[in-house]
Specification:
GO molecular function: oxidoreductase activity
Protein name: NAD(P)-dependent dehydrogenase, short-chain alcohol dehydrogenase family
Family: Belongs to the short-chain dehydrogenases/reductases (SDR) family.
Distance between the termini: 38 Å
Pfam families: adh_short
CATH topology: Rossmann fold
CATH class: Alpha Beta
Bound molecules: nicotinamide-adenine-dinucleotide
Number of domains: 1
CATH architecture: 3-Layer(aba) Sandwich
Helix content: 40-55%
Radius of gyration: 18 Å
Oligomer: single chain
InterPro entries: NAD(P)-bd_dom_sf (IPR036291), SDR_fam (IPR002347)
Number of helices: 9
Largest sheet: 7 strands, parallel
Length: 251
């Protein structure tokens, strides 16, 4: 799919990886609708890139359906859905105050895994209405996993499980949506310099960069965005997860 034919909804588009993707896609000629719960920041980014913003909670069926309806009204159709909304707070299975909070575990699974599925399934229903291309294609869904799906750290039991679920989603969802001509991919980022990471002290960031094999630096969100664009443009990628991590393998 060429960028000038792309009509993309991007969750988490108000910040970090989603924002960088929205900026690159818009600059490359795509139509973009941002879905995020952060209205102030989302409106600002959308205005800067000539896109549309809809305040959305990805965990809510009603909120996402409303956002997709508005996205279709603004762009004419949806043929790309990129899930970047996510949260990543840490807690150990057992710690000095007791066992991991069940509510906290459920919250992370709810936003990262169920929220991504909620957007993917409702976006697929919109994409299925599109006229097919010559080779029967109607759209692409990109979910965001993490290297924590493979090398989760202490305190990442909920986050790692949510991202493992994203990895395990790619193939069965690609098979489910074969008839409709919708591809499904996942990106597993290493450590990227987004607002979440920028809040860490400089020496912690430098240490994290030292752990990366090559190049010895944190990922730039524009590099995630480039991969998302490549996945859209390369029509033979489907049902897989791609790590983008400078060969980082965490202890
Ligand atoms: N930054 C990294 O190093 C890194 C590494 C691996 C994976 N990831 C994943 O990439 C994705 C984006 O991360 P980021 O670093 O850009 O984070 P970020 O915090 O900069 O952006 C996340 C965005 O998601 C939005 N959001 C959160 N909950 C939401 C909800 N319920 N409904 C709608 N929007 C919601 C936030 O408002 C925010 O704008 C996340 O899934 C994260 O787990 C990030």
């Amino acid at each position: 799919m060429q960028m000038n034919e792309t009509c993309a909804v991007i969750t988490g588009g108000a910040s970090g990886l989603g924002e960088a993707t929205a900026r690159l896609f818009a600059a490359s000629g795509a139509k973009v609708t941002l879905l995020d719960r952060d209205a102030a920041r989302g409106e600002q980014v959308a205005a800067e890139i000539g896109g549309t913003f809809v305040e959305t909670d990805v965990t809510s069926e009603e909120s996402v359906q409303n956002a997709l309806t508005k996205a279709v009204a603004a762009m004419g159709k949806i043929n790309t859905a990129i899930n970047c909304a996510g949260i990543g707070t840490a807690e150990k299975t057992l710690h000095k105050n007791g066992p991991h909070s069940l509510e906290h575990y459920q919250r992370i699974i709810s936003v990262n895994l169920i929220g991504s599925f909620n957007v993917a399934r409702l976006a697929a229903a919109e994409m299925a209405k599109n006229d097919p291309t010559e080779d029967g294609q109607r759209g692409v869904i990109i979910n965001t996993a993490s290297v924590a799906a493979f090398d989760g750290q202490k305190g990442q039991v909920a986050y790692g499980a949510s991202k493992g679920g994203i990895v395990a989603t790619s193939l069965p969802m690609a098979r489910d949506l074969q008839r409709e001509g919708i591809r499904v991919m996942a990106i597993a980022p290493g450590i990227f310099l987004t607002p979440m990471l920028m809040s860490l002290p400089e020496e912690v960031r430098a240490q994290l960069a030292q752990d990366v094999t090559n190049p010895k630096r944190l990922g730039d969100p524009s590099e995630y965005a480039s991969l998302a664009r490549f996945i859209c443009e390369c029509g033979y990628l489907n049902g897989e997860v791609i790590r983008i991590d400078g060969a980082l393998r965490m202890q």
